[in-house]
Write a structure and sequence with these properties.
about 350 residues; alpha+beta; seven-stranded antiparallel sheet; 18 strands; about 25% strand; globular
Length: about 350
């Protein structure tokens, strides 16, 4: 009798374990959603993975729609347009055609709302949050100095709407680059290249793409003299590396300094790949530019960092370059036209 009871109890236990395992499998079956979101110790959901593969042509076209509609009664928001198409394609932008964006804009101009159009799109909110983290500080209203017409020695403030973000290379300086994100690197250990290399001349002024706060300034054995700047909304960490030997930075900068989009922050060089500070161990002068997304502070310096491909972003920002001038006394470069936003 006791033996029969034990068998029955064992069967019940096995049944409970099986049901629990099935529930766990069902819970984890939504693998796509769970792969991009995680929870912190405080059980706060945040994004843990972003692949930024938005084509240059789409960013360019969406931006034009945004700027041209800004002062109308139906303003369009370029990040929302891009996020809609990302959700429509499942992130596969090989499907992109400009007519798809035209159709979306036509629907919005005809009275449809983005909320209505995306209510059945499961991943629209993910793409919107992810792409806002990437591009959120790039476009808006601002004032910038410009030379007065017929009196170029004078300046005046002009109100504008459009790209606030700048190219990392100052106006008038040539550079070349290609999509090298993910290429192999071997110094120290085999790893992937998590940025874009812009090849130019030693001493080329390097520009802050966006305003923010300097978080890192000094030597890194991989990046040489480098600067790390965090955007004001804390979502983006900009990494500028391989700066010039002996004179890498704007001398006024220190950790905690505030910079504005378009400020000169340093100078192109070929330092790095050495434990010894101020060493030129790279054969080709270039700027390594990287962009890390941060949705939770636990991601800042960890094994779960999110670095995105910035190649097409650099292409987009090429149209907005900061003009600089050299102070012959201090040898420093500074921007000619200031900005307010």
């Amino acid at each position: 009798m006791v033996f029969k009871i034990k068998i029955r109890n064992l069967i019940i236990i096995l049944f409970v374990v099986t049901i629990s395992a099935s529930l766990l499998i069902c819970h984890n079956s939504n693998s796509v959603y769970n792969s991009v979101y995680t929870s912190s110790s405080a059980d706060k959901k945040f994004i843990k993975y972003v692949e930024f593969n938005v084509p240059y042509s789409l960013m360019d076209y969406a931006l034009k729609y945004d700027i041209n509609s800004h002062d109308t009664d139906k303003p369009l928001h370029w990040i929302e347009l891009i996020a809609y198409l990302a959700a429509k394609y499942g992130g596969e932008f090989s499907k992109y055609k400009s007519k798809h964006l035209d159709t979306l804009v036509s629907s919005l101009n005809s009275g449809s709302t983005m909320e209505e159009l995306t209510k059945d799109m499961k991943y629209y909110s993910y793409y919107l949050e992810a792409y806002t983290a990437v591009l959120g500080g790039f476009v808006g209203e601002f004032e910038i100095e410009r030379p007065v017409k017929d009196e170029p020695e004078k300046k005046e403030w002009v109100k504008k709407y459009g790209l606030i973000a700048f190219s990392p290379i100052a106006k008038g300086y040539d550079y070349s680059h290609y999509d090298d994100f993910g290429d192999s690197r071997s110094y120290g250990y085999r790893r992937k290249h998590l940025g874009n290399d812009l090849i130019g001349q030693v001493g080329t002024p390097i520009i802050a793409i966006e305003g923010g706060i300097v978080e890192a300034l000094g030597w890194n054995k991989y990046g040489g003299w480098r600067i790390g700047i965090r955007s004001f909304d804390k979502k983006r960490y900009y990494y500028y590396a391989h700066l010039r030997k002996n004179f890498p930075y704007n001398k006024e900068l220190e950790v905690g300094s505030i910079v504005k989009a378009g400020d000169v922050i340093g100078y192109m060089g070929r330092t790095g790949y050495s434990d010894t500070e101020n060493t030129n161990n790279l054969t080709t002068p270039h700027l390594h530019f990287g962009l890390q997304l941060i949705f939770d502070e636990s991601q800042k310096e960890s094994n779960n960092e999110i670095w995105i491909n910035v190649y097409n972003i650099i292409r987009l920002l090429h149209r907005n370059k900061s003009e600089t001038v050299k102070n012959l006394e201090t040898k420093e470069y500074k921007r000619i036209y200031d900005i307010k936003y």
